[in-house]
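Discussion board: Methods & Data

I've been asked by a reviewer to show the raw model output for two of the constructs in my manuscript, not just the figures. I'm not sure how much to include, so I'm pasting the format here to get opinions. Each protein appears as its amino acid sequence followed by a line of discrete structure tokens. Is this the kind of thing reviewers expect to see in a supplement, or should I convert it first? Here is construct A:
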Amino acid sequence: MAAPQREMPKTVIKTIETKVEKAKSGKGYDFVLSDASVDRYGDIIKTDGWVLENFQKNPIALFNHSAMLPIGSWSGIEVKDQALRGTLQLAADGTSDRIDEIKALVEAGILRSVSVGFTPIAYKSYQSEDTYGYIYEKQELIECSLVSIPANPNAVMLAKKLNISDETQQMVFRRGSDSPVVVKQVQSAKGSAYIAAHERRRVLRSQVDELISKLGIRALNDAKVRELHAEIQRIDESLR
């Protein structure tokens, strides 16, 4: 029986585990951000369809897609050898204890997954005997994060040997998700309030993104960014 059709999301997040390599030129770490392989949802992202211009204007690198966790920036974003590639430039040593710990986990090969968020521009569906998926033919890169990984005993043991704090370990070893992000549609008496809350959240996120664009890594300790993020969290809790 053929798999059922999925709703096309407005924004898509895809995660790929890759080999961490020291940058071939200069400092940083080279990553494959995306390739054309079939993911676990049956989707394929055409590598020649990436639209990168807007992202390259402000290539901030985040952790776990959180605007509150800028960790550096991306450079050299390009499609090469059938993959979207880039170099992660982590913030300088001493910027924060959290970033220093993340850098140690990258160097140890524990953190090796990156996740792209993109907006589909052109796509088509396809169906095989047991799979229904999308082929993304053109898509705009919105954001790219270093992301957490599921816990495993060896990785946790190595993190402890590196003296990684309990707080960072909890953040790193939680199970993430590369499932499509879809805005729910509510057809009920609560619909107007639900939509208004989402609109408020969208405005707040836009303000946070604007501040990050201006402040860069300094946004990590900015009082206004923290205030906006706290309000976003309150909205998220009310929508659960």
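Construct B, same format:
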Amino acid sequence: MNFAAGAEYFEETTRDYILERLAQALKGYAFQDFIADLLRTMGYRTRISPVGTDQGVDIVARKDELELEPPIIRVQVKSAEGTIGDPQVSAFYAKVGNSDLGLFITIGTFSPQAKQFAKSKTNLKLIDGTNLVDLILSHYEQLDSRYKALVPLKKVYIPQPLDEQG
């Protein structure tokens, strides 16, 4: 195995490990709490909807401390590893409204139809498992210690081949 293939294998294995740990340990409301914590590490104030009364919106996030200034970000999370289709994304978007932003986060993937629907909306963003791992890796150090214990990672530096430096 050459160096580039080894580094790629290491990165892919780490990504798979993170998604597997999340899928095993964070079902339903536990995943919702994790996403709220991840959004807090990104500078958002979050409010989790009470159990059973979310009506399709699991988390409300805002940048301002007093929750007075727009935008309001309405978030739906799905801890399922499967594919989220257009009907689920469309139903969630109906809860977002024109003046708010919608964020749909899943461990799994989105169907091509769901992605196409989201592309047609300027206030809707889809985050699949791959994008979620990117966010986790970017904000890992700021995560609550219980989530770092759930997904224990150690920072490792890998030499970058000269032809990839830029």
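Answer (T.O., handling editor elsewhere):
This is acceptable in a supplement if you add a one-line summary per construct. For B, something like: The chain is about 45% helix and 15% strand.
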